[in-house]
Amino acid sequence: MGTNLFSLFDIKLGTMDAINDFGAPENGSEFLNGPAGSSPTILGIPAFPAPQLGVVMQTELDYLNFKIGRYPGGTNRLSLGDTFSIAELGLPIRQKGVFRFGFWRHTELERNDATLGTVQDVYGVLEYDFSDNVSGFFQYGTVDPSFSEIKRHWAHGVTVSPTSSGDIFGGIMMSHAKFRNEKEERLCELFLSFPLKKRFSIKPSLTLIRRPFGNNESPEAIIFNVRLNLTL
Asked: Are 24 and 33 in contact (CB under 8 A)?
């Protein structure tokens, strides 16, 4: 549910997928792979398929928007101990894009050595519409490697529609993850979406993963997906 506070702040309370409000570039939403969404360096952010009870407060002005959210760290119960908090500042760019800078904090998270501790870090997201038919994004995040196998991640992508109707569009995205053992994983995704009938569309995609999980001994992985979409 939502309510208006002093005509300046909007408050949202309920069970939520925090990625709908924080960290994920809208211009990356058509890609199938997770790196185009929320950065894997944001540890414990509530997301599908396990949304959590939380509260989000947001204000939006002509020159900036700011929002802050708080969620229980691992359950749907209101908790004063294990919590996930996140704040994000957005700065519009010439009415064609936005730069968003975020800070997050997760208490009582398990480290790699099985002890509990508090971890916090930052992330950045840049989105820009180059024209009515071309849009792109870039995102970057870091995290304390004592809590995660990944210590740094970045991704960028472009989506293009050759038609004015936007029924046919495609995109390419590249992602890079650096692990705490200094090894790296690179991912590239290419997709195309086009209509089959009035309410149906099909989206085939091809993904190439080099050095999966940073393992130099692993062969390259090639994944082909097909997604059918129904518009009601």
From this structure: no
